[in-house]
Specification:
The protein is mainly beta and about 110 residues long. The protein has a single domain, classed as OB fold (Dihydrolipoamide Acetyltransferase, E2P) (Beta Barrel). About 5% of the residues lie in helices and about 50% in strands. It is built from 1 helix and 7 strands, in the order H-E-E-E-E-E-E-E. It has a 5-stranded mixed barrel with strand order 1-2-3-7-4. A hairpin with a 2-residue loop joins strand 1 and strand 2. It is globular. It comes from Chitinivorax tropicus.
């Protein structure tokens, strides 16, 4: 049985973890957390880029800088709201799902 080297173990992610890379758009501080808004690269030239917010204890980068950070992926169900379908006239109750990313810091 072989033991993995440091590079292999560093790149290995666990369940509910990912590595995000993109450009920092904005940084804000609230209480003991820093929230970094990051635009991820578009998957192709015809798709719009995604924007996510990563919570951390320390600043991840400066505005305009490209960063790469390991995160824990989580989320929660938001507050329910009423939706009215204009075509059919039906009313539905919807609950948005809010994704949350927390930086894995050493």
């Amino acid at each position: 049985m072989s033991t993995p080297n440091v590079a292999e173990s560093k790149n290995r992610s666990h369940f509910n973890q990912a590595t995000l890379a993109g450009r920092v758009n904005a940084v804000r501080k609230a209480d003991d957390s820093v929230f970094t808004e990051v635009t991820l690269p578009a998957p192709d030239q015809y798709s719009p880029p995604a924007t996510v917010e990563i919570r951390s204890r320390k600043r991840l980068g400066q505005v305009g800088e490209t960063i790469e950070v390991s995160v824990t992926c989580a989320g929660y169900r938001g507050k329910a709201f009423q939706y009215h379908d204009k075509e059919t006239g039906e009313r539905f109750t919807r609950r948005p799902v809010v994704n949350s990313y927390v930086a894995i810091e050493d």
